[in-house]
User: Fold these one by one.
Assistant:
Number 1:
Amino acid sequence: MGNVTSSVAARFAFFPPDPPTYEVYKDGEDDDGRLVFTGLTADKNVRVHLLETKGGNKIVATFWKHPFGRFTILYSHGNAADLGQMQELFIELRAHLRVNIMSYDYSGYGASSGKPSELNTYYDIEAVYNCLKNEHGVKEEDVILYGQSVGSGPTLHLASRLQRLRGVVLHSAILSGIRVLYNVKMTFWFDIFKNVDKIRNVDCPVLVIHGTEDDIVDLSHGKRLWELAKEKYDPLWVKGGGHCNLETYPEYIKHLRKFVNAMEKLSFTKENKSRLGPTDNPDELPIFEELSSGIYVRAVCSFVRKLKIRIKGVNS
């Protein structure tokens, strides 16, 4: 069992850059020294973490703070990159989407210790999510999970276990490891990253982005994942887009911004509904539901004026 799974993973999943494109070291000799990520200056407003996972590995994570960001994107990158290569993208996403970015390197990638495996990626993203909650005070409902290519595996692993996520973005995502290699219709026990099954357990809005000319992960993967999602958001099929260049198309950032804006509106709507009492039924409270409407307020005022006139006529 383990040998077959390892064989699949070796053929598809993990190709960490060798050598890594960055280093992490402590600034100062004491144990409390700040972690420094080579190539990142203080003005970039990035905090570097070294997190221990359930698998016993220490992985590198970076938190890119936006001064006015409400949401945080937890970004799981593709299989042939490390954090050193992702800096420019994170800067662009943070600026254009006005969100915080939490990114990390899988075990065995970059300056993270250990060896890459399917299970380790699950341990990795769990450690990063716990860091977001415990050290940065980020609430589950303010998190958008983002998975690119193989990163869709840990993304859907976590998304299927959390019930109050704000949203999920699947970028050039896979149905499963075996399905990238072979056109099969069933899920085998030795398959890896069984996203085709986990997507059914995701309860938040899902945005799927895929290139129509992706020659590594066929467009059919993205379309099927979108079909299986419970809460579908308008997908983005990038015409002419490949597997590793979707960020270069102008519609990419435009559609992502539209998605984030929609999640903000959805969050505002849910917050307003939550202000109703636990026994209140919105269907039985039309007045309170419509009070924000100027048309309704004007109608009420008009009704009151007419009522006063009628009362005055009766009394005269």
Number 2:
Amino acid sequence: MFISPFNVSVFIFRSTTLALPPSMAMPPTPSRPWAELQHDLLVAIMTRVGAPDLLSGGAPRACSSWRAAARDPLAWRRVDLRDWAALTSGRRAAGPGPSSSRVPVQAALAGILDLAATLAEGRIEAVLLPEFADEDHLLFLAERCPNLHYFSLPSTCMTYDLFCKAIGELHSLKGMAVDESLINYDVLLHVHQCCPDFVELKVSALYVDEEMASVICNSLPQLKKLEIPSSDMPAAAIIKFLDCLEELEYLDISGYETSTISSTVLEKASRLKVFLWNSKFELGEFVDCSNCGEHNINPGEPCKCMMEHKVMDWLAGPTQAS
């Protein structure tokens, strides 16, 4: 039968589900309880759960096997305490403890560090501290965590003497993240002398000039990884790092506030394995304008004259190819 393309009928077929006889039915897939997972696999999961949940009792209260995995020293090799709000809210929900609202935050943090060090049995390798942590907490880590490889200490009120005292006990230290207030030649030289395997530094700084770059290069010549994100940094400082740190493999200066990446910088950085440098100019947060001044600091919005220029281009229509 001929079917005209202008008069096409639509046929709908109903689908029916056929019930198979019991002899041909597929047996249901057996399910295994989470509690029966291998202990090593549970420990690997606990390392990704995070300190807030481990300390608040969420995961450990699931069952006895999960509790055993949460108390395994290998689950505490990396302790991240930066999200203090999540940590303390979880502790309050779990019941009274060292993070109670009646306990000062300094003492609460000391109690949590003591608990983590006890559970880890000296195997903590990395600790990321909250902003209010001070040299007393670092001294505690130096005493209870002899195998510490990395710490993050964002405090801006740190005394050189106590900081150096703690560093003197951390002979296995390989890296640290600190505020710019600790970027001092004598302090970093002490780190270099006490920690022979130290190769990683992260600095929180608003501005890094060539002088600060020289301090880092001269005191820590064996650095392999350097992170100074979201910092205003001239090209001279970047070139200083690239020229003086001969073993440098990883440089992160992403989010800098000056457009200083030149062909010279890129050529010198080509020897690195990783070079992160996404400029705020390139991301569109700052718009350079010769009419309005150096730059219009208005994230996400161009200056008025640039808008007018774009409107005129749009009214003129597409450019004809010659």
Number 3:
Amino acid sequence: MNCIKSFQGSRGVLLLRTFRRIDPVRTAVASCYSTKPAPAAPVATNSKPSPTAGAAAERKSIIPPNYRHVYREFLPDPKLEWRNSLREKLERRDMLSRRANIDIPEFYVGSVLAVTSSDRHAETKTARFVGICILREKCGLRARFILRNVIDHQGIEISYDLYDPTLQKIEVLRLEKRLDDQLIYLRDALDEYSTFDVNMEPEILPDGAPVPVNDVKVVLKPHPWYARWERHDLRGVANMEEHTNERRRVNAARLATPWEKYDLMKEYRRSIPEEEQKEIFTEIYSTLHSQELAQKKMKRKRIFVKPTKLA
């Protein structure tokens, strides 16, 4: 094969023509212009999977699927401009340390809770409030919930930070869900739907029982309302049509966006990918599981009544 090399020097161009013998074996291996696919690399038959990868896969498989609903505040905000992996990791660590000092039970929007918090202005330095959870929002250490109750014909709402150090005790008096994700419309409903006894006794569900869904539909008061509820797709309101005239109905239909439920990219931006959820819950599963076992043990001790010895 003729190989021509050129060298640029001060006296001109020197063409050097050399003749080389080609090695057929080396040419077949080092060919750069062949259109045939490169031979596949031999696969080692005695390769063993790493124990770390196997343990991680096993840990991900044993994570309960309801963790994303029970511990929803551990999932970060889906907005990319608010994401910070280091801050989220430090917040999860602080949340786990806070859960080691206070029992934060499972509850949803529609559950009836009793929260005991520190209050320096109270006579006993503590305040206990009973109400229905009408809202759960935000994530991380900023997670909060709102309780509502009607006391002496006056609607009272208190907003609590879930990981506030002043919270001393959170009790679930009635664990249930509602038809809607938010119950803000209870502000415009009749008082009977937001009235609960402050001395209400807890209703205990058996272990392993599904969370019941309360399908009650509330009755709204006449206008004015806190918001234009006719523009929201509410399933827990019974008399929406009675207080909606033709003009309000037309405006609600004009501003409705029924196609958003088919927008996959918008739904993707609103949620955290399942793979990332598994990574997060894998990181905190061992601590949460040990805390759940300790809570169940304490719950059994509270339920059990030691018999007194008769004389």
Number 4:
Amino acid sequence: MSEQPELSEFPNLKGVVPDISLDDLDELLGKLTAEELDELNGDFDPDNSLLPPSDRMKNQTDKSATGPFSRQKLLKWLEEKAKNEKDWELIKPYVGEKRGKAFKPKAEPKKKMTEDEAKEDTEWDDLLKEASEEELVDLAAVLGFHSMLTQQQYYASLETEEISGQFGGFKGVAKAQELKLMPNEPENKTDVVQSLQKLKDNDSSLKHLNLNNIKNISLERLCEFCEALKTNTQLETLEMASTAATDKVAKTLAKALEDNKTLKNLNIESNFISGEAILEIMKAINKNMTVIEFRITNQKPEVLGNKVEMQLTKLVEENPTILRFGIACEFPDARVRIHEKIQENNDELRKKRVGKS
């Protein structure tokens, strides 16, 4: 390292800065008082980001530490101090004064009816006098005076039902409507064994197979249905919604779709299929490009995740034939891109149809 130049080498600084040698630094520090040493030790750079925050400024607190931080103790001390401190003395005491004039809105002049107008009778006066209360309720509903009607009368007027005599007059009491018992949906009466045999035999009469909501089908039987699709060339629509299918069934279905070239509609909603299995099915669909409708929404793992949704979006964008795709995406990017691709495929189909006609 180069030696530090002495101040004597700069003659222009003589008389401005005293000639101080660093060899006498201990002697200079010994001549300083305690206050001057404290001032010298407090010379830090608070903006120096290379120093830790605790070293950027000298500790200026002379009090001893009171112990570890206690939030409850601090709040209690602040509350007691606020109660014991006196309020600030006001230079001028508060006096409620009202200045200016109070605002008074101008009263609109009432239109006075002349004696001729008051005595003049119309045909409506006779009709209103002779009308019953139920008829007046109907008239209020027609004119839109809904604040004069009960809730039942209001909804009956929207549905153009007869109000008079059914819901009372202006003093009618709104009552709870009786619940209408709706019949349960009929059970799926599909013969599972017979349908499976037809599927294996490649029966031409079996175009639509509906297994929806059949809970007592075992996973092995569902896998048999999927394996039978490999050699079947007649089935066009397969519905397996709410059959408690798992990834085992989905992976078997994906392998079958790689060989099947006639299936057009596939519905496996409301099952227990994960995102990875859905991707395998979509890859199999993209191999032959024959499925035009695929519905997979409402699976047990409701959230597929960003990674699965983006991979699924990419697979859909690679398919120019799919027209309907049922899925609930969590992320807007995947949802919008899938919607745009489905719309694009439908537009292309419409252009071909219009061109042929």
